[in-house]
Write a structure and sequence with these properties.
Layout (H helix, E strand, L loop, with lengths): L25 H16 L4 E3 L9 E4 L11 E12 L2 E2 L15 E2 L2 E7 L5 E7 H14 L10 H17 L4
Antiparallel strand pairs: 1-2, 2-3, 3-6, 4-5, 6-7
Bound molecules: zinc ion.
Amino acid sequence: MAIRPIVRYGDPVLHAPSAPVETIDDSIRALFDDMIATMYAAPGIGLAAPQIGVPLRVIVIDLSVGEDPAQVIRLVNPEFVEREGEQKHEEGCLSIPGYAGSPARPERVTVRGLDPDGQERVYAATELLARAFCHEIDHVDGLVFVDRLSPLKRDLMKRKLRKKAREGWEE
Ligand SMILES: [Zn+2]
């Protein structure tokens, strides 16, 4: 289990769709372990594989940030079954430190995917958990929260972020 460097806005891996996982094997289970360790170290409540430079559709979420093992979600090839309603709350992103925005998200989602044993899992989520699913599934689709902001806010933030990406993110 290793804490991996988190890639930042501007790295191409964050801005292109990730590939579906074909086979869930020990390398995928090791990827989950690294992602969980990296998420807790950050600390954060969610992480997608492209955020550690791995272009695969793998996400982890833990709203308890390691306090409650029952809340850890590990999903391969996550997809929405349902999305309903709308909510807007401030979000940040481990790949965009120091920035936040409030994209429109569905109020309720149902998400389906496979767990590290290849078993199908279905999650019905609202509030923060719904937002976390949307945020992480966006990552495997090559989107970040900035892409979901209103055009004015999006363009302003993108200008600042492109400058950051050019000049380098301070640690
Ligand atoms: Zn993020």
